[in-house]
Amino acid sequence: MTILDDLLQNNKSIKNIVILSGAGVSAESGIRTFRDSNGLWEDHSIEEVATPEAFQKNPKLVHNFYNQRRKQLLSSEVNFNKAHQIITEIEDSNLYNIVVITQNVDDLHERSGTKNVIHMHGELLKTKCTSCNISSPIDSDLNTLSICSQCNEKGTLRPDIVWFGEMPYQLNEIETYLNSADLFLSIGTSGQVYPAAMFVSTTPSECIKLEINIEKTNISNQFDYSIQDSSSKGMEILKNYLLPQK
Ligand SMILES: [Zn+2]
Description:
single chain, alpha/beta, SIR2/SIRT2 'Small Domain', three-stranded antiparallel beta sheet, 10 helices, 11 strands, 20% strand
């Protein structure tokens, strides 16, 4: 009997599953982020492209950066992977109430078919107007002259990305989900970005806490069990416990 058998064999008592997905999940689809190489994202530092101050100082550079990321995301090279797919299968089974809280700004969870997704750090395929504050879908480039489709102001659009120093989205809703979690899964997240790193400690004490990450994290000791492997391999292991065997 393994530790996982022990934790999950009575999975009938698991109803609410909260999944926190991080950079490791997107990395398997070829999407890189700051965490991959010394805090650089495609040769740009956080200070250059991911703070409100950076956007104020050099909006052109920041727009170009996110335009490229958006293009890459929409290119035929990028597809959802096995980890996204298994999460969708678990949701589709209707055996559980699932919410995916993602730190990722891509739409790969949605593309694989997962419905209940919270983008706590915003979305590449959305723009937010700094004048009317409305967020709208976008699949083309933005620039400093772009016109808001909602209020018709010019030059007020920014990427709808939660930058460093800004408040993540839907934290109250996230807290409600965490408070009623029976199983908390942290997948592909380094445990270094707050407040996401605190989510595990926000779950009830009886909640089963599992971590899947390629390496041990700073907060691994707060979980009941850590699978040190890729997101897709880890999810394949969990799938055997959560879905009836065919
Ligand atoms: Zn507007």
